[in-house]
Amino acid sequence: MQKILFVLSEYGYWGEELVGPMETLEKAGYILNFATPTGKRPHALPPSMDSSYVDPPLGKPVVSEEMAQKVEQLEKSDILDEPLSLKELFPLDHPYMSSPEYLREFEEYNRNAEQAAALCEPYAALVLVGGSGPIVDMVNNVRVHDLIRIFYHADKPVAAECYGVACLAFARDYWLRKSLLWGKHVTGHPLEYDYQDGTGFYGVDFNMGPPPYPLEFILRDAVGPGMFHGNVGKPISVIVDYPFITGRSTADSYKTGELLVQVLKNGMRRYGW
């Protein structure tokens, strides 16, 4: 049985964006493993367990009573208790270029990345779960970028949802400084889905207000000659441009999982564009 690696933020994931692909992949027979940036247990964002929560930009509730119960049950379980630590998988930070030992440190860093790639061989795909938490500890996390590159260069699919898609924009070829999304078709949070206020995180009493960046602009720049698909006005937006499967937001969670299964089992390479 093949394994799938899920990466979640320690500052809060959106419940359905884990439950959707998790249920779909388990039903298809895959074994799921979980990872976080430092190995701490991830937790669902409180609004993603609240069926009365009204999403401000959408102007409607986005959590069904059934989903709220599923996320609450997941939170009470021990499924996410011992995630893999990306800091242990990649123990070395990328060295400063000003370091007097830069060449030796860079060589050691690359050796470590090769060792991490060998440890990732059992996994058939990577899933980056969304929510506001990834803004804090995944999007600009070089270890997450290294992990994405490992799957990319191994020609294995990488699925990302919501603000998890931003990780793909910043995963880059080291020498060209060009996003791995360059030339690709992707979807993600369009401007119409962005908060004006209220961006919050798990375990931190801090309201960021609006998101710190418009994801649509970042993705449009990252894809270059490719294309960003906001699909505003359409209830579902998931794009497959192999090896990437990108889901716009919460409502796309199950579809993201379904299309990842299609990619893995049936060789799908393109969908939604």
The share of residues in extended strands comes to: 15-25%
The major beta sheet can be summarized as: 8 strands, mixed
- Structural class designation: alpha/beta
Low-confidence stretches: none
Distance between the termini: 31 Å
Categorize the overall geometry.
Answer: globular
Overview of the molecule:
The mean pLDDT is 96. Helix 1 runs parallel beside helix 9 (253-266). Helices cover 34% and strands 16% of the residues. It has 273 residues and is α/β, with parallel strands linked by helices. The protein has helices at 15-27, 65-76, 86-89, 102-119, 134-137, 142-153, 165-170, 215-223, 253-266, and strands at residues 3-7, 31-36, 54-55, 60-61, 84-85, 123-128, 158-161, 185-187, 227-229, 238-241, 244-247, 270-271. Helix 8 links the parallel strand 8 (185-187) and strand 9. The strands form 3 sheets. Strands 5-2-1-6-7-11-10-12 form an 8-stranded mixed β-sheet, with helices on both faces. It starts with a strand and ends with a strand. The protein is globular and about 55 Å long.
